[in-house]
């Protein structure tokens, strides 16, 4: 079944999405939150928004300190 992704925040290549599952055939829809990043780490999925927001800021800091991410970000910022 398709899910609906909504971008809530984006900073330093780190994205915070709300992922919702639509209701169907009497089944309750649900949602979870996902953090994706340019670094080698796998995307993180969390159920609670406050937990997710707490995890977002350290991930942004780690991305800002990562040399590879800095290079990718500088290349994408200089494109016409």
Short description, anyone?
By secondary structure, this protein is an alpha+beta fold. The protein is built from 2 helices and 4 strands; from the N terminus they run E-E-E-E-H-H.
General description of the model:
- The chain has one domain (4-77).
- Helix content is 35%, strand content 32%.
- The protein is built from two helices and four strands, in the order ββββαα.
- Strands 1-2-3-4 form a four-stranded antiparallel β-sheet, covered by helices on one side.
- The N and C termini lie far apart (38 Å).
Provide the descriptors you would attach to this structure in a database record.
80 residues; alpha+beta; 4-stranded antiparallel β-sheet; 2 helices; 4 strands; 32% strand; elongated
Number of DSSP strands? 4
Note poorly predicted spans: none
Q: Report on the biggest sheet.
A: 4 strands, antiparallel
Strand composition percent: 25-35%
Shape from CA axes?
Answer: elongated
In quaternary terms, these chains amount to: single chain
Query: Structural class, judged by helices and strands?
Result: alpha+beta
Estimated helix fraction: 25-40%
List the helices and strands and how they pair.
Blueprint: E1 4-11, E2 14-21, E3 30-36, E4 44-46, H1 49-65, H2 67-77
Antiparallel strand pairs: 1-2, 2-3, 3-4
């Amino acid at each position: 079944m398709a899910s609906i992704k909504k971008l809530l925040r984006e900073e330093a290549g780190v994205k915070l999405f709300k992922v919702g599952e639509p209701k169907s055939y009497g089944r309750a829809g649900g949602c979870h939150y996902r953090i994706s990043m340019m670094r080698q780490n796998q995307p993180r999925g969390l159920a609670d928004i406050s937990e997710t927001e707490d995890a977002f800021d350290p991930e942004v800091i780690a991305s800002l300190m990562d040399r590879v991410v800095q290079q990718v970000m500088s290349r994408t910022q200089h494109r016409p």
